[in-house]
Automatic annotation (TrEMBL):
InterPro entries: Bac_transglu_N, Papain-like_cys_pep_sf, Transglutaminase-like. It comes from the Bacteria. One of its GO terms (biological process) is proteolysis. GO terms for molecular function: peptidase activity. It holds the Pfam family Transglut_core. It comes from Mucilaginibacter gotjawali. This is Transglutaminase-like putative cysteine protease.
Length: 322
């Protein structure tokens, strides 16, 4: 059973004192049969009280307000997580029966939300590709793997070409983006063939030598519902199954349901935002001080005044899955 120590730091630095910083955080890992949270330490500047609740999708969500004037706000989450390998689906059920089972989910809660498609101009073009890739004799599990490989092979992984508000039309035209874009395209393909698909936010916990994209940052992938199996994690950014090396923070319809940190404040819009993620899988529970690799820190410096909506979008963009 692999164990990981993960530190996720979000730091806001303001040019002048600000106040009434109200924030929502989704930094509490999912707890289930395949993921155990051994311990979590959450420290926030000013030690505000954090109220938590479980949202509609089963995620633990925290909210807090830091009212006092401050020049910086740091949210430091350390988690120790143990994961368990999940056996993969088998194809010993007749495909026709599985597809019939999926059709019956179209009007069943909670699958309805994970079957809704987003309209975009390239929809017909994508549907033609989906129809070509989905061979009738294939079981849903095989189709999921084919769609995942298609996204991996036909979209280029380039940081900075998209933001959280980039539309599917733009992603489709660019044929490029980061992991959240890969996940959104894959989910659209799966939903076209009545396979419920949901967005997942979390971390990849493996050595850099594996060459996987998304190490050292928050990551995103998709989960597809397979009859008689359940939710299967699938990572189109790396063309792999998301299993014991993928630590899940939240699930939802899309990125907006799973953003790790977002909030607003009163004061100057000029600020700097830094986010860093570090993973240690060798000395779990023995080393409380994780060194932050500066190569993993992204800065946003506001040079001109911005309204509250623009500040909100900057915060959302910074939390974009890499």
């Amino acid at each position: 059973m692999p164990e990981f120590e993960i530190q996720h730091i979000t730091r806001y630095i303001y040019e002048s004192p600000v106040r009434d910083s109200a924030n929502q955080i989704i930094l509490f890992p999912i707890k289930d049969a395949y993921q155990e949270v051994i311990k979590q330490e959450l420290t926030i500047t000013g030690n505000p009280h954090v109220d938590t609740h479980i949202d509609y999708y089963g995620n633990e969500v925290g909210s807090f307000t830091y009212s006092e004037p401050h020049m910086a706000l740091i949210i430091n989450s350390k988690i120790w997580v143990a994961t368990k390998h999940r056996e993969l689906p088998v194809n010993d059920i007749f495909p026709d029966q599985q597809w019939e089972d999926l059709k019956r989910l179209q009007f069943v809660v909670p699958y309805i939300d994970f079957l809704k498609q987003e309209y975009f101009v390239g929809l017909d073009e994508l549907r033609a590709i989906v129809n070509h890739e989905k061979l009738n004799e294939y079981a849903p599990y095989q189709v999921v793997l084919r769609f995942c490989e298609y996204v991996y092979q036909n979209f280029e992984y380039i940081k900075g070409v998209t933001t959280v508000d980039t539309t599917l039309d733009e992603i489709w035209k660019l044929k490029a983006g980061v992991c959240q874009d890969f996940a959104h395209i894959l989910m659209e393909m799966l939903r076209m063939v009545h396979i419920p698909a949901r967005y997942v936010s979390g971390y990849i916990c493996t050595s850099k030598s594996t060459g996987l994209r998304g190490i050292g940052a928050t990551h995103a992938w998709a989960e597809a519902y397979i009859p008689d199996y359940g939710w299967l994690g699938i990572d189109p950014t790396n063309n792999c199954i998301a299993n014991e090396t993928h630590v899940r923070l939240a699930v939802g319809r899309n990125f907006s349901d799973c953003s790790p940190v977002k909030g607003v404040y009163k004061g100057s819009s000029n600020h700097k935002l830094e986010v860093a993620v570090s993973v240690d899988d060798e000395n779990v529970l023995s080393n409380s001080d994780i060194q932050i690799n500066e190569a993993h820190i992204t800065n946003i410096i506001s040079e001109t005044p911005k309204n509250s909506y623009q500040r909100y979008m900057e915060i959302m963009q910074q939390q974009q899955q890499q």
